[in-house]
């Protein structure tokens, strides 16, 4: 009797860029030196675009953005074996993500990492070309695809 394969968790990611065309990354509180763009799960019945705006509010304290574009399809990555035993991750093979390119319309002082459930302990703006090199290895292929598809749409 074979075991059913684990499903992929539906998720959104946000490439948030400022007026200078730099991308926002946050350093994860739970993983030293792990940087990432905002991302999170889609709630039951929630549209991906609404989930992206909610995740921005939950993770960086503001959704003062304009949505500029989204990936044409869903991008998928697998969790490494050592993470598949932790918390909610043990129920999924990985994540299937819809990515959004958003322009931040506010001022940097609007960004507040002290949210109800803080995920980041630091943040910075970086050139889009540097994103992939900052990311944990198991997410790099997704970031390469996001940068290839959405990066050319970023304008200062």
Automatic annotation (TrEMBL):
Motif range (Nudix box): 40-61
Enzyme kind, highest EC tier: hydrolase
GO MF term set: bis(5'-adenosyl)-pentaphosphatase activity; guanosine-3',5'-bis(diphosphate) 3'-diphosphatase activity
Residue stretches making up the Nudix hydrolase domain: 7-148
GO biological process, one term: nucleoside phosphate metabolic process
Taxonomic superkingdom: Bacteria
CDD domains per the UniProt record, alphabetical: NUDIX_Ap4A_hydrolase_plant_like
Keyword Nucleus: no
Cofactor(s) listed: a divalent metal cation; Mg(2+); Mn(2+)
Keywords attached to this entry: Hydrolase
Pfam family, one: NUDIX
Family: Belongs to the Nudix hydrolase family. RppH subfamily.
Function of the protein: Accelerates the degradation of transcripts by removing pyrophosphate from the 5'-end of triphosphorylated RNA, leading to a more labile monophosphorylated state that can stimulate subsequent ribonuclease cleavage.
Protein's UniProt name: RNA pyrophosphohydrolase
The organism of origin for this protein: Aerophototrophica crusticola
